[in-house]
User: Fold this.
Amino acid sequence: MKTFEQLGIASEILEAIQELGYEQPMPVQEEVIPLLLGGTRDIIALAQTGTGKTAAFGLPIIQKVDAQKKAPQTLILCPTRELCLQISADLNDYSKYVNGVKVLPVYGGSSIDSQIRSLKRGVQVIVATPGRLIDLLNRKVMSLDLVHTVVLDEADEMLNMGFTESIDDILSRVPSSRSMLLFSATMPREISRITKKYMENPIEIVVGRKNEGALNVKHVYYMVTARDKYLALKRIADYYPNIYAIVFCRTRRETQEIADKLIQEGYDADSLHGELSQSQRDMVMGKFRNKNLQFLVATDVAARGIDVDDITHVINYGLPDDVESYTHRSGRTGRAGKNGTSISIIHIKEKGKISQFEKSMNKQFERRTLPTGEAICEKQLFNLVDKIEKVKVNETEIASLLPSIFRKLDWLEKEDIIKRIVSLEFDRLLEYYHSAEEIMEPTERSSRNDRDDRSDRRDRKSSDKDGGGSRQAEKGYTRIFINIGKMDGANPANLMGFINDHVTGKINIGRIDLLQNFSFFEVPEDTAPKVVQTFKGLFVEDRKLVVEVAQESEGRSNSGGSARKTFDKKGRRPKGRRY
Ligand code: AMP
Assistant:
């Protein structure tokens, strides 16, 4: 294994990373650093977060900055504000002893004026989310004419979030001689399109296999009936006293519900989802980072870009739809060489998906039975006993109090004192598990009798009948109908892009339900009138667009012929016209 010095890292950067505790290069760094320093034009790196990828591109980028030129030379695009800030902070750390290097994070939701002022003072490295960068470029307050290196970080996530066209737009404004580095945890087909279009004979680096996920993450699942899902989560939470976990839920409502229940039952938990304001999100993330929270209950979207080391477990409260999402979720643990576990609490119907994930990831998922109440109490007790054994006693602080404490407890035997300490900590837990029924594993038949399951089927039936119109929007969101569907070539990414292309300002799009001839999407209540208004009188090809607030239990009929196609074969979105 080579040292950072042997990879060509300059002394002032070496000094900074030594302070950060980087002793040896991580595998992705060993591969990428010499290539970037040696002037390789294009690189594709398949690597998860937690593999050390930020330093892999960050160190050579800082080293190659010409501090005399006060204009952007390197552009790093990433999907979220959190990741944007994290990368900027890392680059600032690396450049601590390099004079004159300025890194600017550019992201939506913060004052554009202060970003413009910083740009005017001169920056060499821009770390940006695509939307805000385009905004700045359109205002002509910056130019990318001198950019020689472009990094697309978490490229698959950017595409998932509907940024494909924005990326195309940005890349068209960068000199064609630039070199490009693309990082992605997974390799969906759309990434190959980008690499083909923008890269010349790229060198491909794979840290682990494609779509494989982190190497040091164990994959475990528990099968329960829908009714027992929350109880199973509680058992897992109780069985690992030192757990530090993200619990992934599918919807904002479920996220809030689970977090509320956990909080009510005395767990250190909080929720992170799209309905929170930026400052609420920052507060929750601050508490989680400082380990004041043991459980962060989050939706996939809200958890994007979360960059916290030491997460011991990822808990999937139900499986995500595709293997890419699962890989992203599980990649939040097992970072920086540590071990992690990805636990899924699944319904019997999801068993097939487990096999599918096993095949695509080439990983074995271990089926486990939930710990019994007795096993949980035993584990917790021993954890406490262990803590008592290892606690560092602050002799000087407590010295003055000890004589009176000893006097007060003088009449108790040592055994009695131990019993009392344990009871103090554990009475509630012991009582709960004493009276709690053990959770039975479901069989095909028991799952068919599952109450929740039946209501599930009822919901699905009614939604089939009315085409999904009667589904309620998430709290704070309005459900909107659009007469574009799968038959038009729509998919979540191009539909999101289509909406954002037309509506001014950034629209936070929630749940999307694509049906054959039409679709529903959710937007924050306060933006719904603007969205509806924007599409009034708009035509796509020769078809009039119908965009309106969905009526509850509204039925929809087929409004298009079978041959219609609004988005082209490659899923590219059209521009609407007004007549
Ligand atoms: P990343 O994949 O860039 O999010 O990095 C994951 C974590 O590994 C971060 O906390 C980095 O600070 C840390 N890290 C990166 N490179 C090294 C290294 N060579 N030695 C030790 N830690 C590192």
Q: What stands out?
A: The chain has a mean pLDDT of 84. The chain is about 40% helix and 15% strand. The first helix runs from residue 11 to 19.
